[in-house]
Amino acid sequence: MKGTHLGEFEELVLLTVGILSDDAYGLGITDELEKQTGRNVTISAVHKSLVRLEEKGYLKSHMGGATESRGGRAKKLYVLTGSGQAALKHTKELRNNMWQQIPNVVWDKGTL
Amino acid sequence: MKQNQPPQWIIHFFTWICKEELLDAVLGDLLELYERRVKHVGQHRANWLFLWNVLCFLQPFAMKKLEGQTHLNNYGMFKNHIKTSFRSIRKNAWFSGINIVGLAISMSVGLLMIIFLSELYSFDQFHEHKDHLYRVTTKVEGSRGFKVGTSSYYIGQQLQEGVAGVEKVLVLRNDLTADLKIDEHAIAVKGYYATASFFEVFSFELLKGNPASALSNPGSIVLTQSTANKLFGEENPLGKTMTVEGNQDFQTGIITGVIADPPVNSHIDFDVLAAMKTVENSPVPRRRGFKNDPEDCWSSYVYLVLSERADFANIEAAMEGFMETFNARWDDTNFTHSLQPLSTFVTDPSYRNLPGPTFAQSKIYIMAGLTLVVLLSACFNYTNLSFARALRRFKEIGVRKVNGAGRFQIFSQFITEAVIMSLIALIIGFLLFILIKPRFLELGNPTTSSHPMFSLDITGPALLYFIAFALIIGVAAGLLPALLLSKLKANALFGEVSRVKVFTGMSLRKVLSVFQFTLAIGLIMFAVVVHKQYQYVMDYDLGFETENIIQMEVDEQYLDLLTNEFDKLPEVMETSRSSGLIGLTGRGGFAIALDRSDTITFMLNNIDGNYLPMHGLEIIAGSGFTTSLKEGQGLNYVVVDEQFLKALNLGSPEESIGRQVWHQRDEDVKMRIIGVVKDFVKVPLNQMNSEPMVFMQKARSKYYRSKKWFLNVKIQGVEVLATINKLADIYEKIDPLHPFQAKFYDDQLAQNYSQYRATYEITSFLALLAISISSFGLLGMAVFNTESRMKEISIRKVLGAGIGNLSTLLSKGFIGLMLFSGLVAIPLTYYLVITYVLNEFAYRTNIGPVEIMSGLIMVLLIGLLTIGWHIRLAIIQNPADILRKE
User: What is the model's pTM?
Assistant: First the structure.
C-alpha cells in the first residue's frame, strides 16, 4: 500500500464514487464531478486518480457487463472499501475539528 | 453504426499502448463520450477531441511498461546499447568529436540540399491542373535558330477552336506596365494581360471578385493583395475606377478582383492582371493586330490544360498545320510550336523570353551529386575511424560475445552508436546550416530580379526529412564496421591485435582514402580554374569604357528634364541616352543587302551623339553622330561595327562609308552607313554568338516601342556615394513615381558572370568540406597505423632509427595514396572543367601548371601536416614505456 495521504482531487473522486454508489465508473464519475464542482474535469485525470486510489486500497473494482453503446466494452465499476470510508471520515473529522478552532472574531470581521 | 466510430487507427494505437487491465474500462468510457460528442459537436470535431483524449492518456499510469520480455521485446537490449554508446562516445571523446564534426559539416550541406530540392520541386505544385498544364513554346529555325517560351495569341486561339485533347486555353501578354492612380496615391506596376480563362487554368486564389467575369471586359483590372493594400489600404477596392498612365492601351480601369500574391514558388509573378480585351480594344491600331498574327510570338504565353488522354503528337501536328501557310512565306525561317509540361517550367533554361527565373536541371544534378559525394565521403570517414577505434574495443566485443551476444546484438550495438552520433551531428549540422543559409541564398537565386526563387525556410515536413536523413546517414555510416566487427570470432578478439582478420580490410580503406583525396584534389583544382576564368573575364578589355558610368532607366517624358538637371552638377562629366546597353541588353533586327542577296541579324541600339565618345568606342572610318539633329534629317544614318561589314561583305571600313543596306521592317527602310567603329565585345563573354552591331540615331526611334530609355551618366570617381545621392534627389523631384534605380556599368557586367562566381564559391566551399573530411579520415588512418605499429617503432628506435627514418616509414604509404589520387583526379578534373566551364566561354584563360598542381599540393600539404602531428607523438614517446609492457 502506498502512502495514505488524500489529495484534494482524490478526495473529490472518492466522494463521487460514494455518491454514485452502484454505478461509479470513469465517465460517470467525470460527469458527476463536473456537475458537482462546475469545473472542467478531464477523463484521463479521473482514471489516473481511480488507479491510484485503488492502489492505496481505498477503492476496489470489478468489471460490469458489456453494453452495446460503448463499442462492446465493459465498464469498470468502483466501490469504496472499508479503508476508503475510513479515510473519508478521517478527512471530514479533521476539517470539522479545524473549523471549530477558528475564533468567531475572524468571521465577524467579514471578508477583506 | 459505423459512422459513429472514431478513426480506427487511433483505437489501434490506444490498444497498443494502453495497459491490458485498463483498456476496456478506459476505451469504453472514451467511446461513450465520443458517441455523445458526435451528437453535439459533429463527427469531425469529435474525432479531434477523441484524439486529444487518447493523447491525454499517454501517462505512465495507463501505458504498458516498456521494459521486460513480454511487451517490447528488444527494449532492454536497446536501452543497454544506448547506454554503452553514450559511454563509448564519451570515453573516446577525441574520435567521436572528429566523427561528429565530420558528419555535421557534410550534413549541413545535405540539409541545405534537402530544403533546396523540396523548394525547387514545389514550384507550381499549387495549381489544381498541375499534371495537365502545358505551355506552348516556339522554336524558330533558320540560320540562327532559337527557342522561346512565348508563342502567339493566334496559335492559342486556333487550339481553342477544337483540337482534340485541349480543354482550356489561357493567353497572357507580358507587356503590361502602367502607373495606377487613385486620388493622390500612385504606383508603377507590372503584370500581364490575361484572357478570361485565367482562373480556370491557374489556381491563384481570387480573394475578392468573381473568377468567371473578373477578366472578361476591357479595362478590368485584378490587383494582387499587396498592390491593393498599397493603393487602398484597408478599403475594399472592388468596383473602384482608376486612372491608368504610361500605358497606350487604356486610360481608365475598373478593379474587378483582388488576387492573393503569387507565392515564391510560382513561375510567374505580377502586381496586376488586366483583361486581354483591353489590348484588343487599344486605341493604338498596331496594338490591336496581334490576334491574327502568327509572327507575334515574342510577348504572349499560351497555357493549355489538356485532357487526361490527350495525344501530344496530335496537338503538335495540329499546331504545325496552323503555321503551314505562314511558314510558306519564308525561305529559311520556320516557326514550330511544341508543348512544355509544367514540371519543367523552372528547370529548363533552354528557352529565352521566360516569365521568371529558372534553375537548370543539369545544375541540380551536379549539386545533388556533389552533395552525395561529400556525404558518402563523411560516411567513409566514419567507417575508417571506427575501424581504427575498434582496436581498443576488441575486448569489449569479446566479452559480449563470450556472454552470449549474438551477431545481431553486436551489429545493432554499432548501428545504434552510429545513429546516435549522426543525431548529435544533425544538431551541429543544423546550426551550421543556419550559418551558411544566407550566403547560399545569395548564390542560389539565379537572377537579379526582385522575385527570389528560393526562401530556404525550414518547415515542419523539412524537419522530419532532416531526422529521417540523419537516421539514414547513421545507418549508412555504421553499416560497414557493424558488419565486419560483428563477424569476428570471440577467441580471435582476445589474441594478438594485429592478427585479427579486420585488418584485411586495409585495402578497402585505401580505396576509400583514395576516393576522398581524389575528391578533394579535384574540387580544389576545379575551384581554382573557375576562379581564374572569372578573374580573366572580369579583367578582359571589352573595347569600350565602363568605368564610373552609371545607368538608369528613365521614362521618356522626363528624359530632357533629367539630362538638363544632371548636366548642371559639377560631379557629372558627361551624359548620353540609349535604347540598349552594350554587353547587357539590346534589341535585334534584320538587315538585308541592297541587292537582297543576303540577310543577317544584328543588334540594334538607338543612341544620341554623346554615346559613342562617352564610351570610348573608337571610330575607324567616317564619323559618329552629331549631337543636335533635326527631325527627319539623315534619320537613316547608321554607325556599324567591323563585324557588320564582314557579315554583309561590304568591304573595308573606308569603302563601306556611304553604302546602303535594307533594314527589314513592316516596310523595308534603307540605312546609310556613315561611320564604322572598331570591333568590341558586345555580348557576355560566355556567349559564343556575338551579332553585328548597328547604332542608330536616337531620333530615329520610330520602331522602338518602349517609352523607357537608358540615361548614362559618367561621373567623377571621387565621392561617388554623395554624387549618387545628389542624382537620386534630383530624380525623385522630377519623377516621384518610378523608383530611382541607378547601377554601375561595371557591376551590371559582373552580373553576367554571377553564375560562375556562384560556381566557384560553391565548389570552394565543397572543396573545403572535402579537404577537412579527408584530413579527418587521414588522421584516423595515421592514428590507427602508428598505434598498431607502436612496438615496431619502439624496437626500431632502440636499434637506432632516427626521426627522419621513422617519419618516412610512417608517412610514405599515405604520400603514395595522395600521389595516386592526384593521378586520378587531375586528368578527370581537367576534362570536366574544359567541357563544362571553359567551353562556354568564347574567351578563355589558359590553365597552367600552377592550376593543375594546386589541388594536389594543397592536399599533400594539409595531409602531411595532419599525419605529421600524430607521427611526432609516436616518435617522441619513450620506447621503454611501450616495450616494458611485454
Answer: 0.68
Q: What is the pLDDT of residue B453?
A: 76
Strands B220-224 and B206-209: unpaired
Alpha-carbon distance values, B622 to A101, B335, B618, B619, B654 (Å): 121, 39, 11, 7, 7
User: Average pLDDT of B410-437?
Assistant: 90
Query: What's the pLDDT tens digit per position in B337-359?
Result: 999 999 999 888 888 888 887 88
Query: Which DSSP category does B581 fall into?
Result: B
For residues B297-303, average pLDDT: 90
A3 has pLDDT over 80:
no
Grid cell at residue B441: 541564398
Q: Which of A27, A52, A63 sits opposite B29 (nearest CB)?
A: A27
H helices present in B705-802, as ranges: 720-734, 745-751, 754-788, 790-798
Integer angstrom CA distances of residue B780 from B70, B93, B94, B791, B814: 43, 13, 10, 19, 12
Which grid cell sits at B1?
Answer: 453504426
The position carrying cell 471549530 is A100
Q: Which residues of A touch B26 (CB under 8 A)?
A: 26, 43, 47
Closest partner residue to A73 among B5, B24, B53, by Cβ?
B24
Could you tell me if residue B42 is left (phi over 0), alpha (psi between -120 and 50 degrees) or otherwise beta? left
* Residues of B in Cβ contact (< 8 Å) with A43: 26, 29-30, 33, 53, 56
ipTM: 0.86
Contact B196, B275 (CB under 8 A): yes
Given a cut of 90, whether residue B426 has pLDDT beyond it is yes
The mean per-residue pLDDT over the stretch B817-830 comes to: 92
Q: Do A74 and B31 touch (CB under 8 A)?
A: no
Q: Are B513 and B822 in contact (CB under 8 A)?
A: no
* Contact: A71, B31; criterion CB under 8 Å: yes
Mutate to test the interface with A, among B26, B33, B53 (most CBs of A within 10 A): B26
Helix (H, G, I), strand (E, B) or coil at A3: coil
Instruction: Indicate the pLDDT class of residue B504, thresholds 50, 70 and 90.
Output: low
Q: Which helix (H) or strand (E) holds A79?
A: strand A74-80
Q: Which of A2, A13, A27 to probe by mutation at the B interface, max B CB count within 10 Å? A: A27
The pLDDT, as a whole number, for residue B448 is: 43
Report how far residue B183's alpha carbon sits from residue B219's, in angstroms, rounded to the nearest whole number.
Answer: 18
B464/B477 Cα distance (integer angstroms): 20
State the helix-helix crossing angle for B407-444 and B361-402, rounded to 10 degrees: 160
Residues B335-355, buried b or exposed e (16+ Cβ, 10 A)?
A: bbbbbbebeebbbbbebebbb
Contact B61 A52 (CB under 8 A): yes
Phi-psi region of B823 (alpha: psi -120 to 50; beta: other; left: phi over 0): alpha
B60 min Cα distance to partner chain A (Å): 9
Give the residue from chain B lying closest to A47, CA to CA. Answer: B26
Question: How close A48 gets to chain B, by Cα (Å)?
Answer: 6
Cβ atoms < 10 Å from Cβ of B89:
18
Task: Give the CA distances from residue B784 to residues B387, B397, B670, B867, in Å, rounded to whole numbers and listed in that order.
Answer: 8, 18, 82, 11
Quickly count: other Cβ atoms within 10 Å of residue B147's Cβ.
17
